[in-house]
Amino acid sequence: MSDSPLAPVDPFTPAVRALDEPGTSAALRAAGPIVRAEAPAGGPVWIITEDALARRALSDERLVKDPAWAPLSWDRWSAGLEPTAAEQPSLTTLDGPAHTMLRRAHTPLLTARRVQGYADRIATLARELLTAEAPGPVDLMVEFTTRFPLAVICEVLGVPGERLDQAVAACRRLNGTDPAAFAAAMAAFSELAAAALASGGGTAVELRERTPEEIDDRQLHYLLFGLIFASQITTDAALGFLLARVLGDRPAGPDKIDDIVRDGLRRHPPAPFTLWRFTRTSVELGGVALPERAPVLVDIAGINTAPGAAGGPDLTFGAGAHFCVGAQLAQLELRAVAEVLAADFPDARLAVPYADLRRTDRGMQGSRLITLPVLLRG
């Protein structure tokens, strides 16, 4: 076994780049299949850059998602850690049989067949929100890309429509690191969850019926928060890149739109890295010895765009036991927006040259277009 090479670049430093400008992934990949960098919360982090090794790691039971296994020196707030699995069971912190049980409660609600039943309503929401935009140049990254996925997930869960503004405000409060703002946001999410459960008209009630008996109301509210926030933060970012591509390419036909959605998600995955995983014992990965409590990431964006990667399945929605349960819904939302643009806004175009569009890369917080000025009516 050998030491992992040091990363030649810092993948966590925020940067502004042209939309299609390469980021740090190529340099990380060139350094080796697993490289070491400085974690934002301090100390080393090991980043996997090679596809086969990544897929093995994502199925390795020695790598867990429970923040209880994070380095002891890490501060929860600076590291952006969720509560531990013991404090709050969730899909993103549980592992093993407990995760499997909770996942079984979620999966039937978001299958391809189930979400297809929402297709017409999702298209209507996209049409209504786009039609409500101003007739002149409008920046779709200001309101639409945030509001649309929240409108969809609130509809699916049964959150009353008049609470959409509350959901938007709660998600925006989570963008910072202020504990007080975080507490206010979580209180708002709890109210949204309670409203969904009280409405009786969405999948929130069904989730309550499917979860293990030991999950109490507070924990159930957190599970619903996870669905709401994850739906917003991931689809928000993906929508910006998709809209830029669609408005620059004007695809014709559903097959072309499907290709653009798939390619856009591959090139600009909503999460450029996996969420944190930690070794619960000493582990050997790719010939590198990792100590207990070592934080590990997979460079999803880099592996997706590595030479020769386009022909096989990508890692946009993960792999293994933690494959994203919302993958079908996210893809349906993206296709719906592209189809509504093509059908209802045939003259829509970018208000600036495509080459002028810029994205901000924020490490684990993802990549997002800064602005997307559009003339929806030509």
TrEMBL record:
Name the PROSITE patterns on file: CYTOCHROME_P450 (PS00086)
Question: What GO molecular functions are on record for this protein?
Answer: heme binding; iron ion binding; monooxygenase activity; oxidoreductase activity, acting on paired donors, with incorporation or reduction of molecular oxygen
Q: Which Gene3D superfamilies match?
A: Cytochrome P450 (1.10.630.10)
Return the InterPro entries for the record: Cyt_P450_B, Cyt_P450_CS, Cyt_P450_sf
Q: Hey, which family's this protein in?
A: Belongs to the cytochrome P450 family.
- Name of this chain's protein: Cytochrome P450
Q: Which species is listed as the source?
A: Pseudonocardia kunmingensis
